[in-house]
Design goal:
The protein has ten helices and ten strands. By secondary structure, it is of the alpha+beta class. Strands 1, 2, 3, 4, 5 and 6 form a six-stranded mixed sheet that branches. It has a four-stranded antiparallel sheet with strand order 8-9-7-10, sandwiched between helices. β5 and β6 form a beta hairpin. α6 runs antiparallel to α7 and α9 runs antiparallel to α10. The two termini are 29 Å apart. Bound molecules: L-homoserine.
Length: 300
């Protein structure tokens, strides 16, 4: 018996919500199959689409780490085998490790007859983030599991709040062919935040959440502003400032670094504008002769 599940790419932080906001896109993501095996324990059987880069050792692979955390809570002494099909590039800022972990958990949970409610799988997925980047952040795994926009109001105890997705909101993902791993992009962050920056950031988070519920595109646009992580991280992404400058006159709501980068996300109030700004980003990177991938997606 084999169960296959899909989990999507996600945009963590959404500019102002460092470690506490994220959303999921459509179609783009990872697939994981989990099957019962005669030999006890968890084994990663095959990995494809990763160009040979991901580990097979169960204690290092995000799929097996997540499943082992889940099995620890269950009275399960059998064996499971994992086949991982990567659709997402590694080190891209699109929640690649989260997508693998969530797809693995959903497949394993289904295979075992759903012993857990969906949202109760989150702590297991967060364990795999700890392995992947040294921090058990939940802003990729939560939207990968629950879809749409998600707020992590508190980590201890975990309090995850699904938010409203306004009609007509589209996302463009601009993925320059560079690898930034989250561990490194977290280490460039300032350890302390001034009172003024904390106030500005809080106002923007509140504005963004209100804008989502009120479907107020102008408010969303004003709130897409990050004074905490973006200043330290954007310097690692060539073309970032130029993309940021160009998209607003074209009608986009705003942009930011997707997770820890280098992918740039752009939010637009229509699919047409989302494609328009993708052409604009293409021009910026063409000039630098830096190859990129582009995705346009509704938010799901
Ligand atoms: N919130 C995390 C970070 C997301 O910015 O480091 C990583 O994808």
């Amino acid at each position: 018996q084999k169960v296959t599940a899909f989990a999507p790419a996600t945009v963590a932080n959404v500019s102002c919500g460092f470690d506490i906001l994220g959303f999921a896109v459509e179609d783009l993501g990872d697939k994981v199959s989990v099957s019962l095996s005669d030999s006890p324990g968890v084994r990663v059987k095959t990995i494809s689409g990763d160009k040979g880069k991901l580990p097979y050792e169960p204690e290092k692979n995000t799929c097996s780490v997540a499943i082992m955390a889940m099995l620890k809570e269950l009275d399960f002494s059998g064996g499971l085998e994992i086949d991982l099909y990567k659709g997402l590039p590694l080190g891209s800022g699109m929640g690649s490790s989260a997508a693998s972990a969530v797809a693995a958990l959903v497949a394993a949970n289904t295979l075992l007859g759903n012993p857990f409610e969906k949202k109760d799988l989150l702590p297991f997925a967060m364990e795999s983030e700890r392995i992947a980047c040294g921090a058990a952040h939940a802003d990729n795994v939560s939207p990968a599991l629950l879809g749409g926009f998600v707020l992590i109001r508190e980590y201890q105890p975990l309090d995850v709040i699904p938010l409203h997705v306004p009609r007509g909101l589209y996302c463009t993902l601009v993925h320059p062919h560079l690898v930034l791993n989250t561990y490194d992009s977290r280490s460039v962050l300032r350890r302390n935040v001034s009172l003024q920056d904390a106030t500005t950031q809080s106002g923007n988070i509140a504005g963004l959440v209100a804008g989502l519920f009120q479907e107020d595109m102008a408010l969303i646009s004003r709130s897409l502003n990050d004074v905490i992580a973006e200043p330290s991280r954007s310097v690692l992404i060539p073309g970032y400032d130029e993309v940021k400058e160009g998209i607003k006159p074209a009608g986009a709501l705003g942009c930011g670094i997707s997770g820890s980068g280098p992918t740039i996300f752009i939010l637009s109030p229509s699919e047409e504008i989302a494609w328009e700004v993708s052409r604009l980003a293409q021009n910026v990177f063409d000039k630098m002769q830096l190859p990129i991938d582009l995705y346009v997606s509704a938010i799901n």
